[in-house]
Amino acid sequence: MKTILACAAALAVLAVSPASAETGDPASPYGEEARIPFANHGGIRNFRVVDRETLLIEGRGDRWYRAELFAPCFGLRHSLALGFDTDFSSSFDRFGKIVTRDQTCQVRSLVRIPDPDLPRDAAENDPKAG
Questions:
Q1: The pTM is what?
Q2: pLDDT at 123
């Protein structure tokens, strides 16, 4: 009986581990799913459009994120202003939406990236990595 309980406990820990790796803490390592806290209260400072499916977002503390969209978002490249729809939470994450004048675009992935303005070798030693 103790063996069954130990196995069940081990499975429960394994089931929870991937979710805890995607907590989206702003200090999360580069490349992991992240979230931008308080996006509806000044948590997003700036953005840069890469192409119709990719957007770079600057959060508080000069933290940068790459948002990849499920499909091309027409009008994104020419937008001077965007909306960041967080639904019911105040955090922007992979479940959020980008709103342009013409379209609402679903986010597929939001990951933390180094500052795109830093040289590549300086970005690897960035103290803001967490």
A1: 0.71
A2: 56
